[in-house]
Specification:
Keywords: Amino-acid transport, Disulfide bond, Endosome, Glycoprotein, Lysosome, Membrane, Metal-binding, Sodium, Transmembrane, Transmembrane helix, Transport. This protein is mainly α. It has 19 helices and 2 strands. It has 2 domains: 77 residues, no CATH class; 401 residues, Hydantoin permease (Orthogonal Bundle). It starts with a strand and ends with a helix.
Length: 561
């Protein structure tokens, strides 16, 4: 017996989603109101029942179109199981990508999640690689002024994120459905095509910056982890120059003098290849296992197959590792505080423990924080499955509060306990510990595995936005996907080899992207809405213009310090 309205029995997420249709239909950024949604005819599913098409009055083309439409509706139903309409937004991210625990048991029967899960999803999405750079960023601003900036930037970014959350509301007369619209949809309606494309481009730029930072850190973690195993096999030799003839204090050393400039990398690569050809008796391990040479390339070979999956569903199951890694870093830094004690001196500038309260390099912290508090391109997706939408403002503020607490805790603990000059704090604070430090070695292995599971999600988000903007679909074919992934990977490897500075990447990407997505677009959207409503006052105009100006000053300052 045939079943009407059934979508299918195959639960494979990699089913083909789209057949060739009009591009305008796919690129529709706003949805119709509920009353205007056209009714679909029931779909007759005959797969596996052995029914013949003989006598059918439906053409083969129409039948294929109906089948593909059914598959498409099934996908969107999965992405937003609590929605009343099967909507097709401009660029679709599964909400599970941002979930702290992607398990259905945490949702009610309608597919909605409670405030606790929403808060920790917000927290989990924002917490990332910035944690490792936060002690360095605090040192750049000074102890007291840095803490003020961490809290102040949290409040400012929360406000602009709240504007993003509220932006779809009250625009139903312009065709915006507040229950499903993305921020790019709002930008398109209120700011035009340039607003939509600006939001898209800078959203991709933020994701690219995340890929670059991940690649630098993963190369670092893989390199030092490999050295640990090599040292275990060769206990009488040392392949890490920084470990030789050094006196350690609380297992902390200053790696600054061992960092290479880009021109030195070129020279060393050529020199190593020349030595390899001339001297076959030299240490092969050192030549084929270098932090700013071979390791980023090895990483590319290992990870490239993982970047070409059509569906990211498998990798979302590891989102819980992000929570575990944050908890481990909190415990790790606190244990170092207990081990090394408080080493602060605010008065004697000649003291090894001197800590400045203010530093003119503070824009490095503001640039880093702009990216650290960035959630603006994902916040509507996270809150879409909120069981009680009236709690959105409260949950968002609590989420930002938790993130600010974690940044302050890690930065303060590490900065306070650091037993040598503060200028030695690395932009990846794990670099301040040798491979002989057990806790830092465990952290590197754990973070390496966690980042390997997150990187395919970042590349997937880049792919969906780029290809939807160009082709109107998220999977235009394997070869095109592979070509894009190769381009992203080549950029990431180049950054890891020639400019592996996590702090600088974070602050430049944060300041550049934040100017538009964190400061400019939310404020412009807010003022445009108020102008259309006739409620735009001069104080509102001045305040939000000042926020945009602050973002511009933040960007310019990155090139001054």
């Amino acid at each position: 017996m045939s079943s009407y309205g059934a979508i299918g029995v195959n639960e494979n997420d990699t089913d083909p989603l789209i057949v060739e249709e009009s591009r305008n239909e796919r690129r529709r950024a706003v949805s119709l109101s509920e009353s205007a949604v056209p009714h679909r005819q029931p779909y007759l599913f005959t797969g596996g029942l052995g029914l013949s098409r003989e006598g059918s009055t439906v053409s083969l083309q129409d039948e294929n179109r109906e089948q593909n439409m059914a598959l498409r509706y099934r996908l969107y139903s999965r992405l937003d199981p609590g929605g009343r309409q099967l909507l097709m937004p401009a660029h679709v991210f599964p909400s599970e990508v941002f979930s702290i625990l992607p398990f259905d048991e945490l949702k009610d029967q309608s597919g909605k999640q409670n405030s606790i899960i929403t808060i920790f999803s917000i927290w989990n999405t924002m917490m990332g690689t910035s944690l490792l750079a936060m002690p360095w960023a605090l040192q750049q601003a000074g102890f007291a002024f840095g803490l003020i900036l961490i809290l102040g930037m949290a409040a400012l970014c929360f406000y602009t994120a709240y504007i993003v959350v509220q932006s779809p509301k009250g625009l139903s007369h312009l065709g915006i459905d507040s229950a499903s619209a993305e921020f790019t949809d709002v930008c398109k309606v209120l700011l035009g095509k340039y607003g939509e494309m600006s939001a898209l481009v800078f959203s991709v730029l933020v994701l690219l910056g995340g890929v670059f930072v991940y690649w630098v850190l993963m190369s670092n973690f893989l390199y030092y982890t490999g050295n640990v195993f090599y040292e275990a096999l060769q206990p009488n030799s040392s392949t890490i120059p920084i470990m030789e003839n050094r006196s350690f204090t609380c297992d902390v050393f200053c790696p600054k003098e061992f960092e290479k400039r880009p021109e030195e990398v070129w020279y060393n690569l050529v020199e190593e290849m020349t030595e390899t050809a001339a001297d076959s008796t030299s240490n092969t391990f050192d030549k084929f296992w270098s932090l700013q040479g071979t390791v980023p390339i090895y990483l590319a070979i290992l990870l490239f197959p993982l970047l070409n999956f059509k569906s990211p569903t498998f990798f979302t199951k590891f989102n819980v590792l992000g929570t575990g890694s944050v908890m481990y870093l909190l415990v790790f830094t606190f244990s170092k505080l207990l081990e090394c004690g408080v080493n602060l001196d605010f008065h004697n500038k000649n003291s090894i423990h001197y800590a400045a309260l203010f530093n003119w390099k503070f824009p490095a912290l503001t640039g880093t924080l702009t990216l650290s508090y960035f959630i603006h391109n994902a916040v509507l997706t996270i809150l879409r499955n909120q069981k009680n939408p009236e709690n959105n403002a409260r949950d968002l503020s609590i989420g930002y509060g938790l993130v600010a607490f974690c940044y302050v805790f890690i930065a303060t603990c590490f900065y306070t306990a650091f037993p040598v000059e503060r200028t030695c704090i690395s932009d990846n604070f794990l670099n301040n510990f040798g491979s002989g430090d057990v806790l830092s070695s465990v952290a590197r292995v754990f973070l390496l595995f966690q980042m390997i599971t997150v990187l395919p999600l970042l590349v997937y988000l880049i792919r969906t936005q780029v290809f939807y903007a160009i082709y109107g679909e998220t999977w235009p074919g394997l070869w095109k996907v592979m070509l894009l992934n190769i381009c992203v990977m080549l950029l990431a490897v180049s950054i890891a080899v020639f400019y592996p500075r996590v702090g600088s990447i974070l602050r430049y990407v944060g300041a550049f992207s934040g100017l538009l997505y964190v400061f400019a677009l939310p404020c412009l959207v807010y003022m445009t809405k108020r102008r259309l409503e006739g409620t735009l006052t001069q104080p509102v105009r001045y305040i939000h213009t000042a926020i945009v100006a602050a973002g511009l000053v933040n960007l310019i300052a990155q090139f001054v310090i």
